[in-house]
Amino acid sequence: MNKILLIIQREYLSRVKKKSFIVMTLLTPIIIASFYGLIIYFSIEGVKGTHSKVAVVNNNKTLTEQLASTKNISYTYVNQSLEDMKASFKKTDYDYILYLPPFELSEPKGIQLLGTKQAGLSLNGRISGDVENMIRNQKLKASGIAQSDLDGLKTNVDIDNKKIGESGKEEDSSAGASTIIGTVAGILMFMFIMLYGIQVMRGVIEEKTSRIIEIMISSVKPFQLMMGKIVGIALVGLTQFILWIVLTASISTIAVTTLVGKDELKQRTSSMNIKAKDGSTINTPMTSAVDSPVLSMQKSLASLPLTKIILVFIFFFIGGYLFYSALYAAIGSAVDSETETQQFMMPVMMPLLVGYALSLSVVTNDPYGPVAFWLSMIPFTSPIAMVVRLPYGVPDWQLALSMLILVVGFVGTVWLASRIYQVGILMYGKKTSLKEMIKWFAYKN
Amino acid sequence: MLIINNIVKQYAAHRALDDVSLRVEKGKIFGLLGPNGAGKTSLIRIITQITAPDSGEVIFNGERLNVKHISQIGYLPEERGLYKKMEIGEQVLYLARLKGLSTPEATKRIRYWFEKLDMADWWNKKVEDLSKGMQQKVQFVATVLHKPELIILDEPFSGFDPVNADVIKNEILELNKEGATFIFSTHRMESVEELCDNIALIHKSKKILDGPMAEIKAQYRNNTYWLEYQGEYNFENAREIFEVLENTTTAHKTRLKIKIREHRNANQVLSALLPYVSINRLDEVIPTMNDIFIEKVTQQS
């Protein structure tokens, strides 16, 4: 068997057989799946929702409009003073007291929400929204608009994101789903490159500190040893990635069906569809607002080209990993222990971190802008930026160009790293500076 | 079998080897000696093709050294180790397969060697569970497993207790008898004396001495003898023939280390003494490799 294959085999098996690998590979999908399951569970439970009873003490004579109860909040006007209500509050079954003091409509000040427990942000927001609505209605009426006209003004707008595809056909798309998939892919890419790149570095340092390196390179070329290690660890990464996808997919399917129950899920899907088409369900705006993200998410997930995303992800993982792991191998070869790696880690980590941070902020906000374009072209950042951009749709020529640049990039770093590596692995007990590493290029081997 | 011609190796500002030429005969044990930092490891790394020389050439069995010779050379480096987390058997198998052995053949040979060196039950042990000496044994097996024609050992006995050092020494001699050529790099001169046929001494990147060990030792004889006799004789009377370097006389015997003067010889010592005393011993003090090593190195610096 070819020597490099033997090395790949050892690097692969010795890692895959490790307990930590097996545990990580099995546990992560369970965590992801149960997280996903919990989100679905709570969003469905959330529709039923918590219900708050609010007693309204209105001391404002100018306010003639009343607060209308909604699905989550019921407002009851009480004819008591605030002091009386506070005194008897514990005996009543109200959750909160809403106090409306006298104020000018143009300057509503001093409104208070009182309760034994602090109201959450969302409840606070809802109530203030309701009060604002009420004041607005009263102002509108004052300017002579009839109640019937007011009702007619309420419209519920849901924007359906449609993207015009290459062939001119409409495609369903959802900014939310694209952002989530892009972000998850970006985080995964960052994690994979970091984790496995550092494993390459550790492997090289281990060979150096355990002094097996000289035995090894009397049988194989340093380049074979380095590439064997890099490829072997890449295969470990791919194995883990594919297992994660398969396991997460199957566990979440099981989790969703057992948590929610098949029938209920079906029912909800169909009832939602009716609501979406029918404009008359306006009266309960809260319901659709809570329901739709989950369902539209599932819908637009299905509309995204997931297979393409996974394949491109794998390509950019391999490319980006090769690009960075070669640099990590060079670092590993130049030091005697992991504590010495700090000074070299910074320059290598920085572009990856910058790419990560910019991809998750600038690129998700403006996936077609110049920053997104350049980030997804420069090989230091392209693996992350490109997978973040991908769900929004990337022109094929850009994808191809970025892939080409990445391939050229990793051939370059591998070449560069192998020159440093073959000198570095034989240097013991000497602190290496960046300047010295550059000198090593001149060595003839 | 191995001819090294005018090797030069330069590392940045440091010249590790300066025009070194050597010749290693087939079936011999060749001692490569020199103080720390002299350039021995640099030379060995060139022979094992870990690095290439800046100029000069290495001829292996009549051919310029190339990649296919890797499987014909076994190398036990001074800085040596094993993968800590790997099992011994698996590890030696891996190293053997990297040298081109097939799995069944390698397994067979590993079992043979493990049996022979009393390590039969080590197969499933991990390296981190072994003592340093035990690890050395494993490394020795890995070095010789693929039956290399040329075996290069850098400080092979460091870390061994005397019993195991002896076991390894006997294995070296046995392999040598079967035809393997050895290059043996060490600071321990007593093992050089025991094992080596030829030696070369490298100092400050240059070869300063080489040849068959017996000849080199003969060159460094300096007419010093041990003389031991019983009887009354005042050796001051013979001061024209020899001078006394050491006197360790006891009640029964006179014991002297003498240096015979120029143009005199041992026979003259005997004829001067014979009429008076009974002589127990007169033998030449052959210089040890240790003496020669120290003399050559200090003389050069």
TrEMBL record, chain A:
UniProt keyword annotation of Cell membrane present: yes
Any matching Pfam family: ABC2_membrane_3
Source taxon at top rank: Bacteria
Membrane-crossing residue ranges in chain numbering: 21-44, 180-200, 241-261, 306-324, 344-364, 371-391, 397-417
Subcellular location(s) of the protein: Cell membrane
Membrane topology: Multi-pass membrane protein
Residues in ABC-2 type transporter transmembrane domain copies: 19-418
Sorted UniProt keywords: Cell membrane, Membrane, Transmembrane, Transmembrane helix
InterPro entries on file: ABC-2_transporter_component, ABC2_TM
UniProt-listed PANTHER family: MEMBRANE COMPONENT OF ABC TRANSPORTER YHHJ-RELATED, MULTIDRUG ABC TRANSPORTER PERMEASE YBHS-RELATED
Protein name, per record: ABC transporter permease
Source organism of the structure: Pedobacter gandavensis
From TrEMBL, chain B:
Entry's Gene Ontology molecular function annotations: ATP binding
Gene3D superfamilies in the record: P-loop containing nucleotide triphosphate hydrolases
Highest taxon listed in the record's lineage: Bacteria
Keywords: ATP-binding, Nodulation, Nucleotide-binding, Transport
SMART domains: AAA
Pfam families: ABC_tran, DrrA1-3_C
Sequence intervals crossing the membrane: none
Domain (ABC transporter): residue spans on this chain: 2-229
Signal peptide: none
Keyword match Ribosomal protein: no
Similarity field: Belongs to the ABC transporter superfamily.
Protein name: ATP-binding cassette domain-containing protein
